[in-house]
Amino acid sequence: MGMLLLFPFFFFLATLLSTTESSNHHITHQIHLLRPQSGSRSTDIPGLSCQSWRLGVETNNIRGWKTVPDKCEGYVGHYMLGQQYRKDSEVVANEAILYAQSLKLAGDGKDIWVFDIDETSLSNLPYYAKHGFGVEPYNSTLFNEWVNKVTAPSLPESLRLYKKLLSLGVKVVFITGRPEDQRKVTTKNLINVGFHTWEKLIHKGSSYSGKTAVVYKSSERKKLEKRGYRIIGNIGDQWSDLLGTNTGNRTFKLPDPLYYIS
Amino acid sequence: MGMLLLFPFFFFLATLLSTTESSNHHITHQIHLLRPQSGSRSTDIPGLSCQSWRLGVETNNIRGWKTVPDKCEGYVGHYMLGQQYRKDSEVVANEAILYAQSLKLAGDGKDIWVFDIDETSLSNLPYYAKHGFGVEPYNSTLFNEWVNKVTAPSLPESLRLYKKLLSLGVKVVFITGRPEDQRKVTTKNLINVGFHTWEKLIHKGSSYSGKTAVVYKSSERKKLEKRGYRIIGNIGDQWSDLLGTNTGNRTFKLPDPLYYIS
Questions:
Q1: What SS3 state is found at A206?
Q2: Where are the alpha helices (H) located in chain A, listed in sequence order?
Q3: How far apart, in whole angstroms, are the C-alpha atoms of residue A157 and residue A120?
Q4: Record's superkingdom (chains A, B) (predicted)?
Q5: Which residue among B53, B62, B95 places its CB closest to the CB of A62?
Q6: DSSP code of residue A182
Q7: Chain B closest CA to A94's CA: distance in Å?
Q8: Which of A3, A175, B44, B120 has the most neighbouring CB atoms within 10 Å?
Q9: Distance CA B224, CA B227 (A)
């Protein structure tokens, strides 16, 4: 029921823009309305194709970037709020489901699938739509305020995968970069939007302070395998969710042109 | 000089279509002219977004595919012959050059960069433009005939990277899935288009018969490292060029929606 309550904002944004997709003027205008105050600008790369930039990001050719190039704000906004982000995510979920269905599972409760949370299970798109679609530098104060509102919608395609995995007898483990002090709001948000059960929800403990996501997530996956779990799948929006050690039998990269985490 | 002689066909195709980019009808018509006989058709996936399919391929979410989906022939053709393929490759080369320039090289002649050949150093686009842009199943007889013509153009952005690396004192090692009996034509073709020197040109020996590219290429990279080489970079159009062991300090994935090699 929570999902039904929280969905409208996401779909409000998405349908608002997808219905006016034929008119570039309209789209730009609407996105601007969603973001009345422009944040500080940073990157300007002359001659850059935003399409090529996004492909470079998604294939992990472009690494360590701080913000979306200024000129790509409109492009990324259209991508995220239009049909393509959803379609791209749908293909990922379809492939993951085909793969999961092809496996012969042991059925001993040790087969797990690792899910990242932000931009994988929960969507922060309503926040980023108000903050320049990644053009504004990351602001932890404002972002944490948003997290504490507990209003992040699900990524519908990931929720579909999650439900399918549960029905196949696979257990889900969330590994998130969110700190321990966001456990309560994160739990509530996950349950509200339909992720109602899990084997473990692993937050980034203070011992990993200053460590990269690759180090933290690899270490936590290693612990899981030491405890006898088999990571049959691993899904995330960042390459740092999927690289390192103990990455799982197969990884799935969801699109995310909004930010980069190493 | 050879490069100048061989370039025209590639650019003939590219400019032919990019100049008529505003008219879809024209593009489709021209591509059809290039491919008078339609090959056997195979994959049809209803509701599939070709853009999402291509992203799925480039991010290694979609694996083990045999042919480009039927409905995506036009899409892939436009992508390959229009501006976007070149622009996407340009971003990859730019990132690779930035990375290479950032390194402090030992200058002892042991810093190498691994290049794949097909769709990385040499382009088979003139062949694929006549064979359905990956929609037709792979035909080794016809493809080998094309290889033996020694008329493959370079990928201009990879050639640019190659020249930059040489100027930085990095040595280049080619590792190709082409068999030993194509060494002579491959050598000639590489030199003709501007790849005039290399530390090693490694062809797939008969001992790797039946082995995947990941196994073969990992094994050859391991041998290189055992001989004291440091693989500072590795570039290829297939994930099987970049995954496995001894992958190098950083990998770069060029676009290739034409075929999949495991």
A1: helix
A2: 2-18, 24-34, 50-58, 73-81, 83-102, 125-130, 140-148, 156-167, 183-193, 213-226
A3: 9
A4: Eukaryota
A5: B95
A6: G
A7: 10
A8: B120
A9: 5
Q: Predicted ipTM?
A: 0.85
Biggest CA pair distance of chain A: 56
Beta bridge partners of B251: B234
Please report the DSSP string for chain B in residue order.
-HHHHHHHHHHHHHHHHHTTTT-HHHHHHHHHHH--S--------TT--HHHHHHHHHTT-S-S--S--GGGHHHHHHHHHSHHHHHHHHHHHHHHHHHHHHS----SS-EEEEE--BTTTB--HHHHHHTGGGTSPP-HHHHHHHHHTT-PPB-HHHHHHHHHHHHTT-EEEEEEEEEGGGHHHHHHHHHHHT----SEEEEE-GGGTT--HHHHHHHHHHHHHHTT-EEEEEEESSGGGTSSSS--S-EEE----S----
Q: Chain A, 81-110: which have a CB under 8 Å from a chain B CB?
A: 84, 87-88, 90-92, 95-96
Tokens of A259: 């930010």
Q: Tell me which chain B residues have a C-beta less than 8 angstroms from the C-beta of A252.
A: 61
Q: What share of chain A in percent tops pLDDT 90?
A: 82
**Which amino acid appears at position B58 of this protein?**
E
Q: How confident is the model at residue A46 (pLDDT cuts 50, 70, 90)?
A: confident
Which residue type does B204 have? K
CA–CA gap between residue A56 and residue A46 (Å, rounded): 16
- pTM metric for this prediction: 0.85
Burial of B206 (0-12, 13-18, 19+ CB in 10 A): exposed
For residue range A73-126, list pLDDT tens digits in order: 999 999 999 999 999 999 999 999 999 999 999 999 999 999 999 999 999 999
